[in-house]
Design a protein that fits this description.
Phosphoribosyl-aminoimidazole Synthetase, Chain A, domain 2; about 325 residues; 11 helices; 2 domains; about 35% helix; six-stranded mixed β-sheet; 60s Ribosomal Protein L30, Chain: A; 13 strands; alpha+beta; single chain
């Protein structure tokens, strides 16, 4: 199998048949659905888990933000986090201290507590990995899922494509990009890390009548749009010319030959809404820029650019991995 997400057809055949079923599970595992929802009476418990495998620095912050973003895409309040920290061989105390200090600060910003997990030095790892499970809560009937999009709904994107991937590349390969793009561009790109939480985005959008939400993680905006359509059993048109991409992202992606729309995009929330003006107004009132980038249709997955309409096919792996392969290859070739 390739590096990256296991293909949906393998999940359907090898994973989902073995998960069991309980009547109090309201939302269960399926393609495009990032959170499970369990009935707790007046409230529901929302659960998700995410690994951080592509970043080297700022792992603590990224791990907290990425996991709680899945909760935010349901409109749930983050409550608790469990973190499995698998330290690379040779990691020192400073690395663990920095990771946990950043994780603790990020969790405190969101009003969540890190309640447990597991920490070890793992044989065979050349980089530290973090897996975070996030637990949230919402009133029953007051949450949304990734699967609620309906034909005719508009697709709204918050912030811009590729924020997380841009920040990771600018941080982990700072000198490489400073030589090519200059210090100022790299410094601005690194600060995108401060924007990768979508908790505020999700709360504003669900309050404005969103039918469905999905954060654009691995595979970027392209994969997230397809995952929302798949989960809902509908089609989607993505207006690629309308997807916001910041100049810093354009510059960094151009330098390594990757597509910003296929780059991991935590910080960008996709929202299916029948009332885009109201949704964008609520987001902007909360300080979150947003734009209409597509529409859900009866069937088909389409990428629309001007007068061109062609099939929307996500990249087989996130563009971050392709960038890392090129950058690490150049470093070895010196």
């Amino acid at each position: 199998m390739r590096v990256g997400k296991v293909p949906p057809e393998l999940l359907e055949r090898l994973v989902y048949p073995h998960l069991g079923r309980r009547p109090d599970v309201l939302v269960r595992a399926r393609v495009g659905e990032d959170c499970a929802v369990v009935d707790f009476g007046e409230w529901v418990c929302v659960l998700t888990t995410d690994p951080i495998t592509g970043a080297v620095r700022h792992l603590g912050r990224i791990a907290v933000y990425v996991a709680t973003n899945d909760l935010a895409a349901t409109g749930a309040e983050p409550v608790a986090l469990l973190m499995d920290v698998l330290l690379r061989e040779g990691a020192g105390e400073d690395e663990l201290r920095e990771l946990m200090e950043e994780a603790g600060q990020a969790a405190a910003e969101l009003g969540a507590e890190i309640v447990g997990g597991h920490t070890e030095v793992t044989a065979g790892l050349d980089r530290t990995l973090v897996v975070t499970t996030a637990v949230g809560r919402a009133r029953k009937g007051a949450f949304v899922t990734s699967s609620g999009a309906r034909p005719g709904d508009f697709l709204v994107l918050t912030k811009a494509a590729g924020l997380e991937g841009t920040a990771i590349l600018a941080t982990d390969f700072q000198e490489y990009f400073e030589r090519r793009l200059g210090d100022a561009v790299v410094a601005r790109a690194q600060r995108f890390l401060d924007e990768i939480s979508v908790v505020r985005d999700g709360q504003a959008a669900v309050g404005a009548g969103a039918h469905a939400m999905h954060d654009a993680t691995e595979g970027g905006v392209l994969a997230a749009a397809v995952e929302m359509a798949t989960a809902a059993g509908v089609g989607v048109e993505l207006y690629v010319d309308h997807v916001p991409v910041r100049p810093e992202t354009e510059a960094i992606c151009s330098a390594v030959g990757v597509d910003p729309l296929g780059l991991v995009s935590s910080g960008a929330l996709l929202v299916a809404t029948p009332v885009p003006d109201r949704t964008i107004g609520a987001l902007e009132e909360a300080g979150v820029p947003a734009a209409v980038v597509g529409r859900f249709v009866e069937e088909g997955r389409w990428k629309v650019a001007g007068c061109r309409r062609e099939p929307l096919d996500p990249y087989p792996v996130d563009e971050l991995w392709r960038a890392l392969e090129r950058l690490e290859g150049e470093a070895e070739g010196r």
